[in-house]
Design goal:
Helix content is 35%, strand content 18%. Strands 1, 2, 5, 6, 7, 8, 9 and 10 form an eight-stranded mixed β-sheet that branches. A two-stranded antiparallel sheet has the order 3-4. Helix 4 crosses helix 5.
């Protein structure tokens, strides 16, 4: 009997494209995740894969999409941008409104700002939930769902393995924020982002122990969080590194 594989995908902005490379490697090795979970950028890749797209198709969509065109300046003082236009991107490619309708089960992590807790969604409005999961504090406007306000899932859980526990035989964690020296800290924006990703490292470290295979390509340190022109490079880094790690671990 084949092992059931669960795949947890972290946030990491443009570095999240490396998750596509992980999926490419898994496809080549004839290993198919039976359930996925994701935070922030990882939630986007998870939903596309859950909708039935192959890794190559997801890559092609990202490469031909002007990501910045989906950012809309925020008109209040809660953030710089709003992700309201992200709806248009998803509606263009994912003709499914509810998470529960995806072909492969997907859990999306978003942080409940009111309660101070991570929440894992497996049903509900795809567009709102993914926007909430990607709402990096200060940069993107928080998303209101029901009585609560939600922000980036990575704030509380940037490697959401919890929804996979007890559901699969093998958990693969893909984390795209290796720690290294950051020299370009010359403006408030870069300092804020660096501080944020240093803060989320602790919640990743606590969850690594639940992964049978942990993937974190060191080369991703060369990919800026918002370097959209490096999407292809991030995919290749993820592919090369994860194929090596998975082959050594499983085959």
């Amino acid at each position: 009997m084949e092992k059931k594989i669960g795949l947890a995908l972290s946030g990491g902005a443009v570095r999240g494209a490396a998750h596509i490379g992980v999926l490419k490697a898994l496809e080549e090795l004839n290993l198919k995740p039976s359930v996925l979970s994701g935070s922030s950028a990882g939630s986007i890749v998870s939903v596309f894969y859950g909708a039935g797209y192959t890794a190559k198709e997801i890559e092609e969509i990202l490469l031909k999409t002007n990501i910045l065109s989906y950012l809309k300046p925020s008109l209040d003082f809660t953030s710089i941008f709003t992700l309201e236009k992200l709806d248009n991107f998803f509606r263009k490619y994912v003709n499914i409104k509810d998470l529960s309708q995806l072909k492969i089960p997907v859990f999306v992590c978003a942080t409940n700002l009111n309660l101070g807790l991570p929440e894992y969604f497996s049903s509900g409005n795809i567009y709102k939930i993914v926007s909430a999961s990607c709402a990096l504090p200060f940069i993107f406007k928080p998303v209101k769902m029901g009585d609560y306000i939600y922000i980036d899932g990575g704030v509380m859980d940037n490697l959401p393995v919890e929804p996979l526990l007890g559901k699969v035989d093998l958990i693969i964690g893909s984390e795209v924020n290796p720690l290294g020296e950051e020299k370009n800290l010359n403006n408030p924006f870069s300092i804020l982002l660096r501080s944020f990703y240093l803060a989320v490292r602790s919640n990743v470290e606590a969850r690594k122990k639940y992964c049978d295979i942990f993937i974190q390509p060191p080369e991703l340190i060369n990919i800026g969080l918002f370097s959209t022109w490096k999407i292809k490079e991030a995919v290749e880094i993820g592919y090369r590194y994860s194929k090596k790690v998975i082959q050594e671990s499983i085959l």
